[in-house]
Automatic annotation (TrEMBL):
Keyword Oxidoreductase in record: yes
Enzyme class: oxidoreductase
Name of the molecule in the record: NAD(P)H-dependent oxidoreductase
Any one Pfam family match given in the protein's UniProt record, by short name: Flavodoxin_2
One Gene Ontology MF term: oxidoreductase activity
Superkingdom to which the source organism belongs: Bacteria
Residue intervals of the Flavodoxin-like fold domain: 7-178
Record has Magnesium as a keyword: no
Entry EC number(s): 1.-.-.-, 1.6.99.-
Annotated source species: Nocardioides astragali
Family as reported in the entry's similarity comment: Belongs to the NAD(P)H dehydrogenase (quinone) family.
Keyword list, A-Z: Oxidoreductase
InterPro entries per record: Flavodoxin_fold (IPR003680), Flavoprotein-like_sf (IPR029039), NAD(P)H_dehydrogenase_qn (IPR051545)
Amino acid sequence: MEHLMAHVLVIDGHPDSASLTAQLATSYVAGAGDHGVPLVLRDLDFDLSLHNGYRSSQDLEPDLVRAQELLEWADHVAVFAPLWWGSVPALLKGFFDRTLERGWAFRYKENGMPEGLLAGRTGRLVVTSDSPRWYLPLVGDSTVKQVKGRTMEFCGIKPTKLTRYADVRGRSEAQIAEWIRGAADLGAADAARPGVVRPVRELTATG
């Protein structure tokens, strides 16, 4: 059964609240209105390290339990991240390592092939970079491949669209302001598609 507007989860993966990435995420959430929920990773309390890899389980902190509940609730997942050293900040990578648990976000079938357990959700990856747009494919575009392909789509969140804000250092204040305003329109558009009613756990209160 469908509901009229998509539930949009917006994951802000930048450690700095004053960053362009954070401002874009905030604007996108505002555009999604009552259908958008922010998950600001720098405000969460959790251990970034998966200490024993996948050899044993590691209990989730309450903030990560809440994150899993929100991922179950979402019809659309938007991840905002800067490009750092061909990857993402440790904050976002640690969140993925800890939250996207094997058996919950993905599993391996008997034939050894992976299966994404968050299927039925769409995604958007929003990446900021000082590097120009044309340069990134020449050096492998590793951040996009890692987050869009090997994380979000691996877990079944697809199709995942890509939005770039590149050559940030070369942009004027007016151009940056236009980007931030435009992110609200993007959030409104992503929230406007029909969502799906799913049987999920009741969301816990935060505070």
